[in-house]
Write a structure and sequence with these properties.
The chain contains five helices and three strands, in the order H-H-H-E-E-H-H-E. It is of the alpha+beta class. The chain has a single domain, classed as DnaA, N-terminal domain (GMP Synthetase, Chain A, domain 3, 2-Layer Sandwich). It has a three-stranded mixed sheet with strand order 1-2-3. Helix 2 crosses helix 5. The relative contact order is 0.16.
């Protein structure tokens, strides 16, 4: 037998975690925090991606912007850690790529 029935909330939480939907929500929160940390102009030219092993991956439109953000990295990291304490972001990685 399977045992006693599980509460529906527990089943839904397990399903969301397995399917990765929790990560999608987290990415949305990262986008808002990113916009707040870098401002509207840079946010329009960049997109935060996933946090992997404590590193937030950020796609940007040009290598010039990669360099500029590299100069601001410590300030941005501190601000994102304040805005997203649960994400445990320890580093930022910038790369040129699509920002769709």
């Amino acid at each position: 037998m399977a045992g006693p029935p599980k509460p529906i909330g527990n089943i839904l939480a397990e399903l969301l975690a397995r399917r990765g939907y929790a990560r999608v929500q987290s990415a949305g929160l990262s986008s808002e925090a990113w916009r707040s940390a870098v401002g509207e102009q840079i946010a329009a030219l960049s997109r935060p991606g996933q946090v992997r092993r404590g590193t937030l991956e950020v796609s940007v439109t040009s290598s010039t912007l990669v360099q500029e953000l590299g100069f601001q990295k410590q300030q941005l990291l501190k601000r994102l850690q304040e805005l997203l304490p649960d994400e445990k972001i320890r580093d930022l990685r910038f790369r040129v790529g699509p920002i769709d």
